[in-house]
Amino acid sequence: MPGRTVLLEQERVRIGRYPNNDIVIDHPTVSAYHAELVRRPDGRYELIDRESRNGTRINGTPVRQAILKDGDQITIGAITVHYLEGSRTLEALNRGGVPLRRR
What would the pLDDT profile of 54-100 be if each residue is shown by its tens digit? Predict the structure, then answer.
């Protein structure tokens, strides 16, 4: 479904509600500058919460910083996305669907 999957291509990917983020999630539970993904030298992505109001979780566990693994479910505010390492994508899981947008 268009707007539900985002390809991760950059070394650093900012995620949040404001339109100048690399990935925009327009939902009231998502902070203006909520989180960031940073590609490590080994190619894996590290998720860093940017002191968001509603927090960031991986597989239900609150995190400030964590290295992502294939299949991880990342919850940003109330929005859950699925990290697919092989295709380097984030895929929205919420059925009602808040679209993910690249800037």
Answer: 999 999 999 999 999 999 999 999 999 999 988 788 887 665 555 56
Q: CA of 66: how far to CAs of 19, 29, 51, in Å?
A: 25, 21, 14
pTM: 0.85
Q: In what order do the strands lie in the sheet with 73-76?
A: 5-7, 89-92, 79-84, 73-76, 56-58, 61-63
Place of tokens 């109001």: 53
Q: Which fold has domain 5-93?
A: Tumour Suppressor Smad4 (2.60.200)
Pairing relationship of beta strands 23-25 and 12-16 according to DSSP bridges: parallel
Listed in sequence order, the residues at least 6 apart from 84 whose beta carbon sits closer than 8 Å to its beta carbon are 70, 71, 90, 91
